[in-house]
Every structure is written in C-alpha cells, then in structure tokens.
C-alpha cells in the first residue's frame, strides 16, 4: 500500500538544448506516470492537450495539474538577476530558466501537499526523466513500488556526498553534489518547512548577490542551517538513488 504520493513536473523551453525531443523525454516520464502508484504531475496546458488529454486511461493513478512556466514565483525576480555566472561545461543547459525549474521543486511539492488528492501524509519528489539514469523498466518499477511504501517523519533526501563533509568548491558558482537533486520526500509538514526555507533562501541569494544557482547547492546551505530537517541517505546517479530511499 502506498504511503506516499509521487510528485513530478515537466516544463518546456527553459534552456537552449535539444538533445532529447519532447517525444523521447515524455517516453521516459511516462514510465513513471503509468505506474500503479499515486502520482501528481505539474504540466503545461499545451503538453497536456497534445500528449495526455485523450489517453488518461493509460495513467489511472496520475493527477494532472496545469502549471505554466511563468507561474514559477522566481520569474517575478528575473530582472534582479544581473550577475548570473556559473561554472559549467554545458551553458546551453544551465540557464537561469533551468535553475528556476530546479529550484521550484519544493514549491511543487508544497502545492501537492495542499492539493493531496490521494490523502497521504508523505510525498516524494522524483524527477520526470529519472528513467534516463536507470534504463531498466522493471528495476524502475520495483524500486518506486518499494519506496512508495516507506514512511518518513522528516525530509528524506538523496546524497552523493555526506553533507557533513567539508565544502569542496565555490557553492555559489560551481555545482556541488552533496545532494543528488532527483529525489527527496518525507512528511508533509517538514516538506512545507523545506519549501518555506528554500523560497526564503532563493530570494535572499537573488537580492544579495543578483544571482541564482543549482537547487542542490542551495539545499546544502539549508542543510548547514537546519540539519534537523533532513534525513539523508547515500547513493549515486543510478538505481541506488531509488533503492536506498
């Protein structure tokens, strides 16, 4: 029996890459949406109309919520980001719009908690395209079925590096993989607190530094300030990210 609602989102045109067509990316995401597990997806109207509106029977446990890109509160602060500089080997991907989507994950979970169509106390964010790092449908299914039965009282979060280890780079300009980014979850109350802190920190960084960066870097700053909020587990960007949840 599912203890948690899976939460995900698919937002288009946030960066300048085209390494996967929408069709390919949606094929990946549909492997998540088609599972027999309570799921909420935030999706743009035109994607919903083009790909889902007439085949809802294929996704009987998925609750679709229309969400347009500019509903993301961070776009209200776009004009303040005048000093955006991140060190990346993929600048076409790591745009401000991309960072806005990554940093909005906690807000989507907050809204899922408020909506709660499946009446659960736990919620688990999983990136829409997580299949690309698994590439095995049965392993994906088994792992998500398993994690959907878990209950956590705080924020359960995937970590590639123990966040208690010393900081190894420039947290404002270089990506730091203390947290994996693709999955976090836990109790609704703690997830709302996480969302509150994330929103405050994002606005603070934009206001003070005219900058924004990867969500995982900001989560690291939040962990340092609020370690009691988090229950981290070690994994890598492979099936362990689901199996170890």
Describe it.
Helix 2 links the parallel strand 2 (39-43) and strand 3. The chain has helices spanning 22-33, 45-51, 96-103, 105-115, 137-148, 188-209, 215-225, 240-243; strands spanning 4-10, 39-43, 62-66, 122-126, 155-159, 183-187, 230-234. It has one domain: Spore Coat Polysaccharide Biosynthesis Protein SpsA, Chain A (Alpha-Beta Complex). With 245 residues, it is of the alpha/beta class. The protein is built from eight helices and seven strands; from the N terminus they run βαβαβααβαββααβα. Helix content is 36%, strand content 15%. The longest helix is centred in the last third of the chain and has 22 residues, at 188-209.
Question: Which keywords apply here?
Answer:
245 residues, alpha/beta, Spore Coat Polysaccharide Biosynthesis Protein SpsA, Chain A, seven-stranded mixed β-sheet, 7 strands
Count of the separate structural domains: 1
Q: What is the global morphology?
A: globular
State the share of residues found in helices, binned by percent. Answer: 25-40%
Write down the overall mean pLDDT: 96
- Provide the CATH architecture: Alpha-Beta Complex
**Spatial gap, N to C terminus:** 16 Å
Main structural class: alpha/beta
| Radius of gyration, taken over Cα atoms and rounded to an integer in Å | 17 Å
What is the H/E order? EHEHEHHEHEEHHEH
The poorly predicted ranges are none
Name of the top-level CATH class: Alpha Beta
Total DSSP helices: 8
* Quaternary class: single chain
DSSP E strands, number: 7
At the fold tier of CATH, the topology name is: Spore Coat Polysaccharide Biosynthesis Protein SpsA, Chain A
